[in-house]
Amino acid sequence: MFTIRVQTPSGRYPVFLGRGLLKNTGLLLAGQLPAGPVLVVSDKNVAPLYARQCLQSLQAAGYKPYLKVLAGGEQVKTLETAAGLYTRALQAGLDRRAAIVALGGGVVGDLAGFVAATYLRGVPYVQVPTTLLAMVDSSVGGKVAVNHPLGKNLIGSFYQPTLVVSDVAALKTLPAREFNAGLAELVKYALIWDRKFFIDLENLQQKNIPAGNSLLHAAQPRLLKYIRRAIRIKGEIVSRDERENDLRRILNFGHTFAHALEAATDYAYYLHGEAVACGMLLAVRLAELLRVLERNAARRIRTLLRRLLKFPPPPPALKPQAVAKALFYDKKKEGAALVFILPQAAGRVLVCKAPPFNIVQQVIDEYLY
Ligand SMILES: NC(=O)c1ccc[n+]([C@@H]2O[C@H](COP(=O)([O-])OP(=O)(O)OC[C@H]3O[C@@H](n4cnc5c(N)ncnc54)[C@H](O)[C@@H]3O)[C@@H](O)[C@H]2O)c1
């Protein structure tokens, strides 16, 4: 088991990462919190696979666990579902000594974290991520939120977990498409922060991965090492800038285009990680056209992305104007200026404000035609 420590101004917490950790959730929690009632929040896909192990281990460690299983999917990340969870917690008599455990992907993690941040003005919570995306991204850093009819993640807070328990054994049951989406976020860390990580991934695919095979199957033992590296990078970035005033913005590499693609397709075509994968390719192209990134480096990054990730084909009916329009609704905009995180080299990015829009438009056109 690896322990990665995250230290932000509002809290310090361990991320435990390993294989087969779920059955030790209770023990790991006992190192941080006294025994008491615990509300475990999960979804209908994850609960049948992993809730029993988690509940049993909590019970064995002296906690009194209650389970709430949600339908799952982005549509449950709402204030209405949160209200249902408050009710369940009140009915179970959860007081300030209680904790909430989020057992599932980023949807469950964001929602249960939001409930923990607001129930009785805040109770501790534990992230037990079961998707690759949640392990390398959403479980670390304390962004908790629900969606609003007018946009995703608009109601939320920064609220750090008490601990994170990442059991990579859970990834075995993750559908391949979801795994690929998480892999996009994992590769992102190499591109924004760690040239050596990038080179390792390059070498890995050259040495071990026949074209078309995924990192998971071809090199499973290495996956743990890469997840650890990704969590360390995320931990370091959020430790330096918990509330996304500056440095943390680089985690949005690929996300300006990704959010526009998702919004322009009503969130029904791409998984988030797939949109990020496409968004990273578009950001590389934009950086190349703006001469921020050398042509050779751009080619290398594109090659890595194309060989590690699967890209859905561009949506056939999507019009460039729809993507351009969606770009201007972006949360990351500063005034009227669009903000892009662009690669300068493998492992290094910069923040680019208001690039000439005809070049942004060219990138979108090239992608769609
Ligand atoms: N808080 C943050 O910093 C942050 C960062 C990135 C994304 N997010 C949020 O994360 C959410 C997306 O998270 P996600 O990609 O994990 O999606 P998700 O939670 O919807 O999980 C994806 C699917 O996989 C299923 N699943 C989960 N684990 C499984 C397992 N081990 N075996 C089988 N099936 C499993 C789920 O039931 C679901 O159907 C979005 O709401 C996004 O806004 C938050």
What CATH calls the topology of the largest domain is Dehydroquinate synthase-like, alpha domain
Low-confidence stretches: none
Helix content: 40-55%
**Rg calculated over all Cα atoms:** 20 Å
Task: Report, as a whole number of angstroms, the end-to-end distance.
Answer: 47 Å
Strand content: 15-25%
Principal-axes shape call? globular
Largest sheet: 7 strands, mixed
Which structural class should the secondary elements be placed in?
alpha/beta
Q: Topology of this protein?
A:
Layout: E1 2-8, E2 11-18, H1 25-30, E3 37-43, H2 47-60, E4 64-70, H3 79-91, E5 99-104, H4 106-118, E6 125-129, H5 132-138, E7 143-148, E8 151-158, E9 163-167, H6 176-193, H7 195-208, H8 215-218, H9 220-240, H10 255-264, H11 272-289, H12 295-308, H13 320-327, E10 339-345, E11 348-353, H14 357-368
Parallel strand pairs: 2-9, 3-4, 3-5, 5-6, 6-9
Antiparallel strand pairs: 1-2, 7-8, 10-11
Helix pairs in contact: 3-4, 5-6, 5-9, 6-7, 6-9, 6-11, 10-11, 10-13, 11-12, 11-14
Report on the architecture of this protein.
This protein is α/β, with parallel strands linked by helices. The protein folds into two domains: 2-173, Rossmann fold (3-Layer(aba) Sandwich), CATH 3.40.50; 176-368, Dehydroquinate synthase-like, alpha domain (Up-down Bundle), CATH 1.20.1090. Helices cover 47% and strands 20% of the residues. It contains 14 helices and eleven strands. It has helices at 25-30, 47-60, 79-91, 106-118, 132-138, 176-193, 195-208, 215-218, 220-240, 255-264, 272-289, 295-308, 320-327, 357-368, and strands at residues 2-8, 11-18, 37-43, 64-70, 99-104, 125-129, 143-148, 151-158, 163-167, 339-345, 348-353. The strands form three sheets. The chain has a seven-stranded mixed beta sheet with strand order 1-2-9-6-5-3-4, sandwiched between helices. Strands 7-8 form a two-stranded antiparallel sheet. The chain has a two-stranded antiparallel sheet with strand order 10-11. Strand 3, helix 2 (47-60) and strand 4 (64-70) form a beta-alpha-beta unit. Helix 5 runs parallel beside helix 6 (176-193) and helix 10 crosses helix 11. It starts with a strand and ends with a helix. The mean pLDDT is 93. It binds nicotinamide-adenine-dinucleotide. The site of nicotinamide-adenine-dinucleotide has 30 residues, from helix 4, helix 5, strand 8 and helix 6. Residues 43, 45-46, 49, 72-74, 77, 104-108, 110, 130-131, 133-134, 137-138, 141, 143, 152-153, 170, 173-174, 178, 181, 272 line the site of nicotinamide-adenine-dinucleotide.
